[in-house]
Amino acid sequence: GADAGEDTSFDIPVEIEVENSLKFYNNKIELEIGDAEPKNVSNGGTENPAIDEDLTINVRYENSYSEDVEGFTFEASNIEVKLLIEGEEIDVSEGGDDAENGEVGMTSFSFDLNDYDVEDKIDARIELKGEDNFGSLHGDIFEFKLDIKEESEEDETSELLDSDNDGVSDDIDLCASTPQ
After folding, report:
1. Sites in the chain below the pLDDT cut of 50
2. Contact, 82 vs 90, CB < 8 A?
3. How many C-beta atoms lie closer than 10 Å to residue 18's C-beta?
């Protein structure tokens, strides 16, 4: 009912609900044990590295907001990924890869298995946290076990294996198909 040229303003309440999340990418963590291909440990089970093997834990995380709302930008920043073994903080990666909506970041951890007892199952935990541009905290936790073996099975058998029976073990045999 305003007259022409008269400024009339009023407030309209608008409710916006945005589901936001910072979580492990595809809900998995990958372990690289020795030279083997990375292995998904998403089942939270137990892995069996040998004490003489290198172990790398690859952590990918994504910022997966349910949708972009026009005029708003949601970014996950101050991201911290923490590795705990037997409840003790081993390593922390801070802010390496901040992740905007739909992006995936990555960090890796390596640690010396010689610091732990053979045949003891040790608890491993990855904690992921970050905050959005409104100061809200988000994150995820991932747990699995490591059952450390005495020696890698590959090392024991590769030294003795002689596939072509030429008297030279496969680990140093330059001609793997030499006749007997």
Report:
1. 155-159
2. no
3. 14
pTM for the full predicted model: 0.66
Q: Which amino acid is at 127?
A: E
CA angle, 91 as apex, 86 and 97 as ends, to 5°?
A: 130
Report yes or no: 22 and 59 within 8 Å, Cβ to Cβ.
no
CB 38 within 8 A of CB 31: yes
Q: What pLDDT, in 10s, does the model give residues 75-113? A: 667 888 999 999 999 999 886 556 777 778 888 998 788
Residue 60 token pair = 């990918």
Four-residue CA torsion sign, 23, 101, 13, 11: positive
> How is 46-103 classified by DSSP, letter by letter?
EE--BTTS-EEEEEEEEE--S---TT---EEEEEEEEEEETTEEEEEEESSS-EETT-
Six-digit token string for 64 = 């997966």
